[in-house]
Amino acid sequence: MSDVLWFLTRSSGIVAMILIAAAIINGFVYSGREGGRRIRPDWWVDLHRGLGGYALIFTVFHLLTAYGADLGYRVIDIIIPGVSKQWTTAVTLGLLAFYAMLITVFTTWPKRRFRSRIWHAIHLLSLPAAIAIGVHGWQMGTDSRTGWYIALMAILTGLVMYPAGLRISGLIRSRQSGN
Questions:
Q1: Is the dihedral of CA 86, 91, 95, 96 positive or negative?
Q2: What's the angle, vertex CA 146, arms to CA 141 and CA 150, rounded to 5?
Q3: What is the reported pLDDT for 34?
Q4: Closest CA to 141 of 72, 66, 76, 70
Q5: Whether the Cβ atoms of residue 79 and residue 104 lie closer than 8 Å to each other
Q6: Rounded Cα–Cα distance for residues 170 and 91 (Å)
Q7: 3-state secondary structure the chain
Q8: Confidence check: pLDDT of 39 > 70
Q9: pLDDT tens per residue across span 117-168
C-alpha cells in the first residue's frame, strides 16, 4: 500500500504544480488589458478560481499521501515549516508555498472585504509560492533529474514567466510614459 501512496504523492504533487501554473497564467491573462481595456469574460474568473481551488485540493492530497506513504514524516512535519528532520529546506519551502496558496485562494472569495491594493498584494503571494514549489519539486522530487520532468519544469516556467514579463514590461512602460 505504501508504494501506491508514494506514486500518488508524486503524481498529486506534479498535478498540483501544473494546476498552480495554469491558475497563475489564467490570472495574468484574465487581468490583462488589450487596447487600454480589460478583457473580462465571466467564465475566465470562474476558471481561475476553479484552477486555484483544484490546485489547493491536490496539494492537500499531496501532503496527506506523503504522510500516509510511510516516508518518515510526522504530522507536525506537514503542518509546521522548518521542523522536519529530513529534506528540511525542501519541506519548508513546500509548506510555505502551501500556506501562501491557502491564503491566496481563501482571500479570493471575500475579495470585496479587502481594499484593492491589499487584496492584490495578498494575491501576488502566488508568484513566490510558485517559485518555492518549483524549488521544492526540484530538490525533493524523485523525478527531478529525468528529461520529461526537466522539460515540464522548463515549459511551466516559460508559460508563467511570459505573461508575468508582459505585465511587468507594461507597468514599466506606463510609468515611464506617465513621468
A1: positive
A2: 80
A3: 60
A4: 66
A5: no
A6: 35
A7: CHHHHHHHHHHHHHHHHHHHHHHHHHHHHHHCEECCEECCCHHHHHHHHHHHHHHHHHHHHHHHHHHHCCCCCCCHHHCCCCCCCCCHHHHHHHHHHHHHHHHHHHCCCCHHHCCHHHHHHHHCCHHHHHHHHHHHHHHHCCCCCCHHHHHHHHHHHHHHHHHHHHHHHHHHHHHHHHC
A8: no
A9: 888 888 888 888 988 988 888 888 778 888 998 899 889 888 888 888 877 7
Q: Which three cell numbers stand for residue 40?
A: 473580462
**Distance between CA 39 and CA 44 in Å, rounded?**
9
Do 20 and 105 meet the contact criterion of CB atoms below 8 Å apart? no
What's this model's pTM, rounded to 2 decimal places?
A: 0.85
| Dihedral sign from CA coordinates of 111, 115, 121, 122 | negative
Q: Work out whether the CA dihedral 53, 59, 61, 64 comes out positive or negative.
A: negative
Of 38, 17, 45, residue with least CA distance to 123: 45
